[in-house]
Design a protein that fits this description.
The chain has 529 residues and is α/β, with parallel strands linked by helices. Helices cover 43% and strands 14% of the residues. The strands form 3 sheets. It has a 7-stranded mixed sheet, sandwiched between helices. Strands 1-2-3-13 form a 4-stranded mixed sheet. Strand 8, helix 13 and strand 9 form a beta-alpha-beta unit. The structure holds pyridoxal-5'-phosphate. The site of pyridoxal-5'-phosphate has 13 residues, from helix 9. This is Carrier domain-containing protein.
């Protein structure tokens, strides 16, 4: 199975993560000298519009201290060096690089290894190959599913990778309604949305507008298609996309399309309001700045500092917040309290923080493929003109629509979520998550997540350590999502658990017991970075 994926899907993964996976990467012959390396840094700065080229550029400058490159910048620079010189750097060795001189040594050492015909190390460009080969949780075929217990190659595993938070993927009422809608509409409305849409769409868009509390929304098949469609659409050469460095990769891909159209892009430090304000100040003269963030960060379950950002941009007339709440929608809702810890109604972060998209200059994007178990996503529109514009995005008119089953399941799911049953489900998820997070912390591991949000990442550390930890969990029958570079900082890999209403207390306790073994057997746990 894995071999098949390696041969068939490598190209796709390359495109998605922007890494070269091909082990046959050859080093160019000859030694690289210091000047070439510094030139490559200048090229990197120009390409990514980073303004950190000091007057006196020399080999002993420190990448983080003198040049203020954060961990993401450094990894991007290493990737740039690899591409420029056609080589593959060992990620474990790259963690010791402090200065250009260290990097030069490592680059030439890597050249030597490749030139001698040795097997190239597990270089940063080979990261995906390493993960697919070594981490049992990647690319599995599921033979059977019973609730959140799965059968994979004859082995029973508990599912902590599903993000069907409300458990609606297993709801009989939804199956029945889907069948009725299929009989009415067929399996798939194969019209472009520019031509025609079944009325299921209108109903769903109206319901979503009410649930979220916005004038209008437009439904697309996926969040990724929204980013790929809307971000280039609003871009001009005088537009800056200011991304949180941990913004979801799909936002970054959308911004790359905007960048290809001549827009500017830059990262600010994760959830760092001071850094954001500094960048906003620098961008005062631009026509438009889009602050691109996750609502709930997909690798940690931590909330964006959305209310503070809304407050901050009151002083920046050119700024808009573009928030991707793929995870928060359906869980977070109005007025979180002791009785309803995630709030009521599941309307997402706009409801949680009482945000008005017009007053607060927010474009809100969320998905239906997690809490609502349906292939669908939506973007809010502040007025009819914005709706008309968003409905001309390339991915809206040139890509296919949502299947009937998903339009139907999303609609019924929203109705359930809006009823008192929805709030009961959310309370149940809270209790399960609290049990899990408390257990993990008692074991002595570090678990990130805002206020017992059911996306919990357990900190591990290096990629080698997370690989070992994932193997132990697999042995104990636990399916999780490894959170590794580029979805997590390179030296801060995590084990991501998602907890749904369909998980059981027994499954939670098993997961905690398995993590206790990880704590004992993985040398770098809880985390080194
Ligand atoms: C924050 C975030 N944005 C976007 C996506 C992608 O969503 P979609 O599958 O709807 O493209 C995910 C998927 O996990 C996500 O976590």
């Amino acid at each position: 199975m894995k071999e098949e994926y390696l041969s068939e899907e490598v190209v796709d993964l390359e495109r998605v993560v922007g890494l070269e996976l091909n082990n046959s990467t050859k080093a160019k012959s000859g030694t690289i000298d210091g000047e070439q390396l510094l030139e490559s840094y200048v090229g990197f700065c120009n390409k990514y519009k980073k303004k950190r080229i000091p007057q006196n550029l020399h080999l002993d400058l420190q990448l983080s201290g003198d040049l203020a490159l954060d961990s993401i910048d450094q990894v991007e620079f290493l990737l740039h060096v690899e591409k420029t010189f056609g080589l593959s750097i060992d990620p474990d060795k790259s963690t010791n690089v402090r200065t250009f001189r260290d990097l030069l040594e490592l680059v030439n050492e890597t050249q030597d290894t490749d030139a001698k015909g040795g097997v190239p190390g597990v270089g940063i460009t080979d990261l995906q190959r390493h993960l697919i080969e070594e981490v049992p949780q990647f690319y599995n075929e599921v033979d059977e599913q019973h609730g959140r217990t799965l059968k994979i190659k004859g082995k029973e595993v508990y599912d902590f990778a599903s993000a069907n938070y409300l458990g609606l993927d297993l709801d009989e009422r939804i199956f029945t309604k889907i069948e009725a809608d299929l009989r009415k509409w067929g399996t798939h409305p194969s019209w472009s949305r520019a031509i025609a849409s079944p009325e299921l769409y209108t109903k769903l868009e109206n319901t979503l507008s009410e649930v979220v509390g916005v004038p209008r929304v437009l439904v697309y098949p996926t969040v990724t298609l929204i980013h790929m469609g809307i971000l280039p659409l609003v871009a001009t050469p005088d537009t800056l996309f200011l991304m949180d460095e941990r913004a979801h990769k799909s936002i970054q891909e959308g911004v790359d399309l905007a960048y290809a159209k001549g827009a500017l892009k830059k990262f600010f430090k994760h959830n760092d309001l001071e850094d954001l304000q500094r960048e906003l100040e620098n961008a005062r003269d631009l026509d438009a700045v889009y602050i691109c963030i996750d609502g709930v960060y997909s690798m940690t379950g931590v909330d964006a500092k959305l209310p503070e950002m809304v407050e901050m941009i009151r002083d920046y007339p050119n700024a808009t917040i573009y928030v991707d709440d793929a995870h928060g929608f359906g869980l977070w809702g109005s007025n979180p309290s002791e009785e309803n810890p995630y709030g009521t109604g599941g309307g997402g972060l706009l409801r949680k923080y009482n945000i008005d998209v017009n007053r607060d200059k927010v474009i809100y994007v969320a998905g239906l493929s997690k809490a609502f178990s349906s292939l669908g996503a939506f973007v809010t529109c502040r007025n009819d003109a914005e709706l008309e514009m968003f409905a001309t995005a390339a991915t809206f008119i040139n890509s296919g629509p949502c299947p009937t089953a998903s339009l139907s399941s999303a609609q019924t799911g929203l109705e359930i979520s809006q009823s008192s049953e929805g709030d009961e489900l959310r309370k149940h998820i809270f209790e399960l998550t609290k049990r899990f997070v408390t257990g993990v912390r008692e074991v002595g591991l570090v678990a990130e997540s805002s206020d017992f949000y059911p996306l919990v990442s357990v900190e591990i550390g290096t990629i080698a350590a997370v690989t070992e930890a994932a193997k132990i969990l697999w042995e104990k029958g636990i399916l999780i999502t490894p959170a590794v570079y580029p979805n997590a900082p390179i030296k801060r890999s995590m084990l991501r658990f998602t907890i749904t209403a369909a998980n059981t207390v027994e499954e939670i306790d098993n997961a905690i017991n398995a993590l206790e073994i990880v704590r004992d057997l993985v040398p770098s746990a809880p985390y080194y970075y």
